[in-house]
Amino acid sequence: MTDHPDVVTICSDLIAIDTSNYGKAGSKGELAAAEYVAGLLRGAGYDPEIIESEPTRANVVLRVPGADRSLPGLLVHGHLDVVPAEPERWTVAPFEGRVADGYVWGRGATDMKDMVAMMLATLLRWAADATGPRRDVVFAFVADEEEDGALGAEWLVRNRPELFAGVTAAVGESGGRPVPVRAPDGTVRRFYPIAVAERGSLHMRVRATGTEGHGSRPNPDNPVVHLVTGLARISAHRWPLALTPPVRRLLDTAVRTLGLDADLSSDEGVEAVLDRIGPLREYVEPSLRCSTNVTVLDAGYKFNVVPGEAHAEIDVRSLPGAEDEQLAVIDELLGPSVTRSFLSYRPAIGAGWDNAWYDAMAASVLRHDPDGVIVPFCMGGGTDAKPFAELGMAGFGFAPLGEDPDGRTPAGMHGVDERVPIASLRSGLDVLDDFLRTV
Ligand SMILES: [Zn+2]
């Protein structure tokens, strides 16, 4: 019987394999990380499959049969790639995988090589204890999430859907982590938000047309002007506040648990509550509204030539069910000379909290922290849950971490000095193992 590395060592090892995803500028690739994952699993007696969507862009998939194979299956997915890091801005080397001061440090420590390490450590435990899950659990370690999943989750969904046969729910990144909030009476309550919905990710390209001509002549039909005035109107637009069911549920629970005197029936009342729920605010604010951000501008080629057209890209995020309404408003704001098309269109998804999957996640957290308060939330951004939803899976964000008794917290996601507390990783593993075995 070989000695398996523990979750901290695995997390550190994974960080030391640089899987930076530079987006359109390329990628380090996930192959070395995929080989590490597959090697660990083979050493424990599993038979994982490495699946390359393109050379070096690698995914690993393993199905662990459940004790009752008639039950619907569960997918647990984690991405192997990370966003790039600028080493000169860090105090530790981002791809060293240093373990020090109670933390594992490095790019991916919280997004999401921590969860990938917990998934692997769960599997190694099961092998060592000769145990396994109640239902089939498919483990997917995927490529390319930090771009758009086209070579990872989306590729698997399009090209290898049979890997997910019988799977009706998926659990992935974000959620399941303790969020301590101080109540007005001075007590601290620990909330555990679980993601049950995601805003839509609509990446839009817009095109303004007009009349080309000499830059010295009057031109009332200049497409650059049509474009920027439309974009200015969009940028100035204040999208209305709307409480979707998970957001309302979270706020109601927070108000009741903390004993706040609050009125959620007005925008001002909601804004006032945001100021009183501490770090829980981050789980509410991004999903209160639709949003639009102009991210790319592309117009003109010479100072004395008015071009015939001009382009821009807009990052549009929609609330569940609000896509059509939001697009109609965008069309009106853009004006008649500007047309739009989608670079990608992934509408919002929502699994809700009134189901056995959510109950099982909540129960696993509460077995480890009986005083915890479980709340649903809607993610402001997007994850691989969206492509997996195309196969009919209900998508959840549940990558549990426990509380560090000395008060350390995860930090630096997509920023500098990314790190995860060792104690949080160890207790998160206990929660994830418990959930995946018993669900
Ligand atoms: Zn991530």
Automatic annotation (TrEMBL):
The keyword Kinase does not apply. InterPro entries: ArgE/DapE_CS, Bact_exopeptidase_dim_dom, Peptidase_M20, Peptidase_M20_dimer, Peptidase_M20A. Keywords: Hydrolase, Metal-binding, Zinc. Its cofactor is Zn(2+). It holds the Pfam family Peptidase_M20. Belongs to the peptidase M20A family. This is M20/M25/M40 family metallo-hydrolase. It comes from Nonomuraea spiralis.
